[in-house]
Design a protein that fits this description.
Layout lengths: L1 H15 L10 H27 L3 E4 L2 E4 H25 L5 H31 L7 H32 L9 E3 L3 H23 L3 H27 L3 E3 L1 H6 L5 H16 L1 H24 L1 H4 L3 H5 L11
Antiparallel strand pairs: 1-2, 3-4
Helix pairs in contact: 2-3, 2-4, 3-4, 3-6, 4-5, 4-6, 4-7, 5-7, 6-7, 6-10, 9-10
Length: 317
């Protein structure tokens, strides 16, 4: 009898609790978020055309780029939109659960599906030229890259779902990220693809052997890097929020020097700069985590302790 009363009370409570209908949204941040998803979809389209087009390039007015590189730039454009939508929502004090859910849905397309699909198509195009290789080995490589792509998409979805659960709308809570952010993970992959498509062909005109070595190194490293950033996304390693920690507000003079160095590197070679920035950022959190977790890395050499009172000194061979 008591169980029936309890069940009836629960059903009555569920009938009274009704979901509120969404009556209004913030238009500008939502449009920018949707632009993020559209750029991710465009990246998938360009990546799919890259295999069929072969050596042909995408051309629009004076812009001429390989299809795979164009797909990478679409993901980078999605990153810019992803940075702007949250900033606009917080500046206008219009953050909402709807905006957060919409952002995650677009992120899984732009920073989950698009980079994995791009890596898959680049490697399929490369493996299509290995006609003289053992068919069993090529079949193994195909299965491996599919597994790497599936693992990356799964980890990106888990990363975004965890972020939605643990996220706080307060600006002070956005000083660091738990796990590698999905845009940074996507940046590692697309920056290497852009470097492979735009910079390495210039090297082939100087040295064919050097081009072959560098191309194989980049291509065959992609699935392993994809697995590596997948693990970093779902890890508990902390990564800094670059804008809030290093660029916003008053900072030491050294921050300005670093920013100028990065700008100079981008002007000199944007492809190499993208690789260094994204790969360096992804590795920085892991290196810092290892430094604090492995005691031997923080152990001070005995010769430093012995000569500390005598001023600077160096060990003798």
């Amino acid at each position: 009898m008591t169980r029936l009363k309890t069940q009836a009370a629960k059903e009555s409570l569920l009938r009274r609790v009704r979901k509120q209908r969404l009556k209004s949204i913030t238009v500008l941040p939502s449009l920018v978020t949707i632009l993020n998803g559209v750029c991710g979809f465009a990246a998938i389209v360009f990546a799919s055309k890259g295999v069929a087009a072969g050596v042909n390039h995408f051309s629009y007015h004076r812009l001429t780029l390989p299809y795979f590189a164009m797909a990478g730039y679409m993901v980078l454009l999605a990153m810019i939109a992803d940075m702007l939508d949250g900033r606009l929502a917080r500046m206008s004090q219009s953050t909402s659960s709807f905006g957060g859910q919409l952002d995650s849905l677009c992120d899984i397309v732009s920073f989950g599906v698009a980079p994995a699909f791009l890596m898959l198509k680049v490697l399929e195009y490369k493996l299509a030229g290995l006609v003289e290789t053992n068919p069993a080995f090529v079949s193994f490589l195909h299965r491996f890259i599919w597994l790497a792509a599936a693992a990356y998409i799964s980890c990106a979805a888990i990363r975004l779902a965890r972020f939605n659960v643990e996220n706080e709308e307060d600006e002070s809570a956005h000083m660091s990220f738990v796990g590698l952010p999905s845009p940074a993970a996507a940046g590692v992959i697309v920056s290497l693809v852009i470097f492979h498509q735009e910079t390495l062909p210039e090297l082939s005109a100087r040295s064919t052997q050097a081009y072959t070595i560098c191309e194989n190194a980049v291509i065959y490293a992609l699935p392993f890097l994809l697995l590596g950033v997948s693990v970093l996304m779902v890890s508990r390693i902390r990564y800094p929020h670059i804008l809030n920690q290093y660029l916003k507000g008053k900072k030491p003079f050294a921050h300005l020097i670093r920013a100028l160095v990065f700008l100079g590197l981008i002007i000199w070679s944007r492809q190499a700069a993208l690789v260094l920035i994204f790969c360096g950022f992804a590795a920085s959190g892991l290196v810092k985590w290892l430094y604090y977790r492995v005691p031997i890395l923080r152990r001070t050499p005995k010769w430093v302790l012995q000569n500390n009172h005598k001023g600077p000194s160096y060990p003798m061979d």
